[in-house]
Amino acid sequence: MTQNKKTKAPVEALRKGLQILELLNADWRREGIPLAQIAQQMGQNKTTIHNLLKTLVICGFAENNDGIYTTGWKVRRLAKEQLAGDIVNQNQKWIGALAVLAEKIEEPLVLASLIQGRRQVIARAESTQSVQVNSKFCEQNDMTTWETVTGRVLAAYALEQEKLQLFETDGIPGRRWNGLSTIEETLEELDRIKANGIAIDAEGEVFSAAVPIMTPDGSVFAALGVYLPMFRISPYRRSCILKLLKEGAETLASLIRNS
């Protein structure tokens, strides 16, 4: 009787690095794992594991807090992008929930996410209004993050490394968003959005607003936005729409928790 042997990986260092990622990812509360514990669990000496961890940290896949290691920002970004991919692939549960919400609000909705450092629309739901804003015009994928309310929400809740990528990709907002001319001014505005839990643009002929959709670990994987003509906004309707938008974001977030 032949005994099954564990297949030897062509690149052993890569296999060990991936094993480390599995260990760190299993620490879902992100309390952190000491170097010695990782080395012990893997049956490797601390020098080897330290060098592998150092590489993972440099590449953004692990974080080191005084010798206590957790998953890095790129691992968390990959998890968010996987959720976005599920929606892009026409997950009916998500599409159906978005359509029901658009019917309640009676205005078109847009769901957008950061994918590889770019804001991308991953789902839309149109309204039955005879006069409505064309969300495809207001939320184009070639627009910068700063030009849309969904992009501003995503930037407000982005990881620090993701914010740096946004500034490298899209530059300073300038006239694309309230004339913000420095990184410091932009970060202050993003902090205000995060504190309020909503981004609103009531300039011109279109009213738009967006709120975050939270994952169980407290991060944001998408922004839910609404667009409508300014003439249809009154203080009462504005209040109703924002309430329904926040409730809708919570409903969509519950799909993550229950999946």
How would you sum up this structure, described in words?
Helix content is 49%, strand content 18%. By secondary structure, it is α+β, with helices and mostly antiparallel strands. It has two domains: 12-71, Arc Repressor Mutant, subunit A (Orthogonal Bundle), CATH 1.10.10.10; 77-257, 2-Layer Sandwich (Beta-Lactamase), CATH 3.30.450. The strands form two sheets. Strands 5-4-8-7-6 form a five-stranded antiparallel β-sheet, with helices on both faces. A hairpin with a 2-residue loop joins β4 and β5. α1 crosses α3, α5 (92-105) packs antiparallel against α10 and α7 (149-156) crosses α9. It is elongated, with a radius of gyration of 22 Å. The two termini are 42 Å apart. The model has no long low-confidence stretch (mean pLDDT 86).
Question: Could you state the oligomeric state of the chains shown?
Answer: single chain
The major β-sheet equals: 5 strands, antiparallel
Averaging pLDDT over every residue, what do you get? 86
Judged by helices, strands and strand pairing, the structural class is alpha+beta
CATH architectural grouping of the largest domain: 2-Layer Sandwich
Output the helix-strand order.
HEHHEEHHEEHHHHEEEH
Distance between the termini: 42 Å
Tell me the count of domains: 2
Helical content band: 40-55%
Compute the number of strand runs: 8
Sum up the overall morphology in one term. Answer: elongated
| Largest beta sheet: strand ordering | 5-4-8-7-6
Query: What's the number of helices?
Result: 10
**What is Rg?**
22 Å
SS strand fraction: 15-25%
CATH superfamily of the largest domain: GAF domain
The CATH top-level class label of the largest domain: Alpha Beta
Low-confidence segments: none
